[in-house]
């Protein structure tokens, strides 16, 4: 009764009854929760023995982080969701596979995979048909909903209304105010719809897992089915609040860089817990979890596969081999299983012949360490640096690109570049439908496509034919870049040896050439002595001469006059 609602006449607050009530309910909830649990939190920290100093320090740091929440770039991260996941049918489809990829393996510890799968499929069927649930299950599900177990987004909507950022608002009675409110409400409805598909997939995942786990617990005569189901949801759909954030994901910088990384972190943690703490059933469940991932994303989607391939390719490059682990693996699988079998093993279900889409990349856990691409010799590391910065790096790069396009007068292209990915995919699909081809960013043809593939692209799915061609082109370009770089290095060393009158350097260049040709007999490098001599001549020129001599013909004469004038001034 001490926390009554008092109207204080605050402009924009007291007249908004929804906001007043939301703030009242939410602030009371936080205060009550703190009164109930802060003592437990302090006791849990104090109960850690002093001998476990590192653990105690981490616990103190976590407790402080929970007690003193701070701004973590929520607006920017919300924009990243809007940009990359919102409005996308493909993202919602990928999200809804989580119960099959995680829930079934976890529940298989308690009666086997077949029983876990049948309970989950039955739960999804009951949800889709609107079948009335058993009384005890319906009651437990309602409690889980109120506790945020199966509907965690509700508290965020309440928080938004409490701070005056509610979905819909009321006008102030004036013509201008009503018009502005109408625009804001329509935009809010658009944003709500934009995230609705992904949010619905999340709710389906949590509710179906809860129902399946509850029924499995009843079947296994587990004492507290609701508690078991709650634990199953938390373990398989993960707890995505501040208390469960990794150390690197705290604060505005860490939270932004780790955006969209929580699933992979939680996935690996669950995999580790089941394999090391679950006994024989846990180890079997962990293997089933990896097997399911392989079925969905193929062998190339298993954890750390891309990182391991980058490391092997890096070692091969340093030893002088123009080697691609991915390409070698593909050739090995094709020789062993044939092309169709190799595609299935490598990419999973969507690698089967006739599949119109390829979602193996979306489901993949292969690229978990973003810096490994920087190890390789490439002509351009922009993609690797952007990957290191996460989605915010990609968004920044797109913003600069869109700005350049706008200044060049290509406003339509600039708008598509800066628009959310779902809009970009829709525009790409429309272009494919009208031209009958998939084109790269420069407008060049990549491959001819069908209307079905164009429709899939509109929904956000990458057509299988495009994914295959793009993947092969990437490997060929990387092999070509390393060949050219190595050839240039040899010629540069040869020319430098002549320029510095160093026979040892020339001999070293010959040795590198012979070594490359022995190790890469199908990619031999030949040294044209005329090009080496031209390089030596260029090395003997001053820098201003080199710039003037290599300038376009229209600029060359004026640059040479400027160089001569500058030299006269120096003399």
From the structure above, extract its key features:
mainly alpha; 2 strands; 571 residues; single chain; two-stranded antiparallel ribbon; 70% helix
Write structural notes for this entry.
This protein has 571 residues and is mainly α. It folds into three domains: 1-68, no CATH class; 72-294, no CATH class; 301-473, no CATH class. 70% of the residues lie in helices and 1% in strands. The protein has helices spanning 17-46, 53-67, 74-84, 89-95, 98-107, 113-129, 135-146, 153-162, 175-219, 225-236, 251-257, 262-277, 279-297, 305-318, 325-347, 360-363, 382-389, 391-407, 411-418, 421-435, 451-458, 464-499, 503-519, 529-540, 543-549, 553-570; strands at residues 437-439, 445-448. Strands 1-2 form a two-stranded antiparallel ribbon. A hairpin with a 5-residue loop joins β1 and β2 (445-448). α5 (98-107) runs antiparallel to α13. It is globular. The model has no long low-confidence stretch (mean pLDDT 88).
Kindly name the structural category.
Answer: mainly alpha
The overall pLDDT average reads: 88
Number of individual domains: 3
Largest pleated sheet = 2 strands, antiparallel
């Amino acid at each position: 009764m001490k926390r009554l609602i008092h109207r204080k006449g605050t402009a924009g607050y007291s007249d908004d009854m929804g906001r007043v009530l939301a703030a009242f309910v939410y602030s009371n909830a936080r205060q009550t929760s703190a009164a109930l649990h802060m003592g437990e939190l302090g006791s849990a920290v104090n109960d850690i023995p002093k001998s476990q100093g590192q653990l105690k320090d981490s616990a103190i740091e976590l407790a402080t982080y929970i007690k003193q929440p701070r701004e973590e770039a929520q607006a920017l991260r919300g924009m990243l969701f809007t940009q990359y996941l919102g409005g996308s049918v493909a993202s919602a489809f990928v999200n809804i596979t989580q119960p099959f990829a995680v829930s079934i393996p976890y529940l298989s510890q308690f009666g086997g995979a077949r029983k876990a799968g049948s309970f989950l499929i039955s739960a999804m069927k009951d949800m889709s048909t609107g079948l009335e649930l058993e009384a005890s299950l319906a009651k437990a599900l309602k409690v889980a909903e109120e506790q945020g177990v199966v509907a965690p987004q509700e508290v965020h909507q309440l928080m938004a209304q409490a701070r005056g950022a509610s979905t819909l608002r009321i006008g102030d009675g004036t013509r201008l105010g009503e018009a502005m409110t109408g625009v804001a409400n329509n935009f809010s409805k658009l944003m709500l719809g934009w995230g609705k598909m992904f949010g619905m997939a999340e709710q389906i995942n949590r509710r179906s897992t809860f129902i399946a786990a509850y029924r499995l617990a009843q079947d296994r005569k587990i004492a507290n089915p609701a508690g078991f189901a709650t634990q199953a949801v938390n373990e398989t759909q993960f707890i995505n609040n501040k208390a469960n954030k990794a150390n690197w994901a705290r604060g505005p910088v860490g939270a932004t860089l780790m955006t969209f990384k929580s699933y992979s972190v939680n996935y690996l943690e669950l995999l580790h817990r089941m394999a090391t703490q679950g006994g024989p059933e846990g180890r079997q469940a962990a293997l089933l979890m990896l097997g399911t991932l392989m079925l969905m994303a193929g062998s190339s989607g298993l954890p750390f596969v891309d990182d391991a391939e980058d490391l092997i390719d890096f070692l091969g490059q340093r030893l002088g081999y123009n080697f691609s682990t991915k390409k070698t693996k593909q050739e090995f699988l094709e020789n062993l299983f044939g092309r169709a079998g190799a595609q299935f093993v490598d990419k999973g279900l969507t690698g089967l012949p006739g599949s119109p889409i390829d979602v193996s990349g979306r489901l993949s856990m292969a690229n978990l360490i973003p810096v490994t691409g920087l190890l390789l010799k490439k002509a351009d590391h922009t993609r690797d640096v952007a990957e290191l910065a996460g989605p915010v790096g990609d968004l920044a790069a797109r913003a600069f690109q869109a700005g350049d396009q706008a200044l060049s007068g290509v406003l339509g292209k600039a708008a598509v570049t800066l628009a959310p990915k779902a809009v970009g995919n829709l525009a790409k699909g429309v272009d494919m439908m009208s031209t009958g081809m998939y084109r790269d960013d420069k407008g060049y043809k990549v491959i001819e496509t069908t209307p079905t593939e164009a429709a899939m692209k509109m929904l956000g799915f990458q057509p299988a034919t495009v994914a295959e061609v793009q993947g092969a082109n990437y490997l060929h370009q990387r092999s070509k870049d390393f060949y050219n770089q190595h050839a240039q290095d040899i010629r540069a060393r040869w020319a430098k040896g002549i320029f510095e009158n160093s026979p040892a350097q020339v001999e070293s260049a010959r040795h590198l050439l012979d070594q490359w040709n022995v190790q890469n007999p199908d990619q031999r490098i030949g040294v044209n002595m005329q090009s080496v001599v031209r390089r030596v001549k260029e090395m003997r020129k001053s820098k201003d001469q080199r710039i003037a001599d290599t300038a376009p013909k229209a600029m060359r004469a004026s640059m040479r006059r400027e160089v001569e004038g500058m030299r006269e001034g120096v003399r």
